[in-house]
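agent> fetching stored inputs for the manganese (II) ion docking request
agent> found them:
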Amino acid sequence: MIIEQYRIDEYNHINNKEHQRKAEFLRSEIANFDELVQKLIAFQIAIPSWALGTGGTRFARFSGGGEPRNLEEKMADIGLLHKLNQSSGAISLHIPWDIPEDYAAIRQLAAQYGLTFDAMNSNTFQDQPDQALSYKFGSMQHVDKAVRKQAVDHNIDVIRHGVELGSKSLTVWLSDGSCFPGQLNFRNAFQRTLESLEEVYAALPSDWKMFVEYKAFEPNFYSTTVGDWGQSYLYASKLGPQAYTLVDLGHHLPNANIEQIVSLLLMEGKLGGFHFNDSKYGDDDLTAGSLKPYQLFLIFSELVDGMDDRRMNHASDLGWMIDASHNVKDPLEDLLQSVEAIMIAYAQALLVDRAALAAAQEKNDVAGAQEILQQAFRTDVRPLVAEARLRSGGALSPLGLYRALGVRDELIKERGLKTVATGL
Ligand SMILES: [Mn+2]
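agent> prediction call returned; pasting tokens
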């Protein structure tokens, strides 16, 4: 399905009067309204190829119908999202789930949808049917060098695919760890993992980044070999200047202060990428901003502050990606909601009066500092985000138009009710 521009323009025309009324009010409140609109237009969030089908849990998977059956259809789905919101202009591929058969054709298709290729993701957390050796007891940490070599070779292969497509980064998430005390020698596991990562790092093109993602637990429940930001930072530091830590919001122990982690990693120049989702208990992979929008805002506030301090480009100097997937919503509706929540949190963070906040902090004005943050958080910036979409050709309400056009019904007609996206 292709959404033609005139459908968007028609929809915007019908809703424009109401939008302008709200936008005018906000313009009167925000001095640099147009400057913020430009920042929002530039900000793009990559969509992972595995979020386009209903996610599986360990127990079941309920297909929603019309799911993309191959890489081309996954790109078509992201093309639809990007057409609607103009903020989802990148795709993050997972190998081996999305191995392109014809690079030139895939690159051409991406250009047609206005998409770029964000970080490539490797997979050594499950065994593939044609795989010689098992990752049951880990991949890069494995006691058997042959298994480690298989994992290294796979990552190098992923880089090769990425180079063909124009990607510039590799994300490594390892499920390596142990389920029971005594199973693993922690130091040996760390050293073996480091040596394996060094071999992958050596194969990185000079303009590539490597993101080392951490996760507190699951699927291993006693120890994880890249378990927290300290361990990831240790690997990234030892690997070299092209290696960075990647923060996935769901990969922390409950109540971790993620905004502080982000702040310090940025200070050290070692924050490379970000995976957005939300959670109540663990790695729940729920829609960004659906449970803890204030936390999302506080994280963005540190991101903006830290990036400005280092004169980084908000739009291009970190890898921004959604990493979510679940069973109950239409995945495309879910992704539109996630992108909207991320844009709102970013816009609110841009509103924070940094000079006033710094002054309050220097005076130990605790209540004053809280007021400054909450003034930004409690501003309804939705018309600002909508204005950015309007000016870049997107829909005033992406979800509203998605429903009005009956996109899911169209996709079911095209692809069938019983389709299952490749992936988990
Ligand atoms: Mn992730």
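agent> quick read of the result: The two ends are 25 Å apart (CA to CA).
agent> awaiting further instructions
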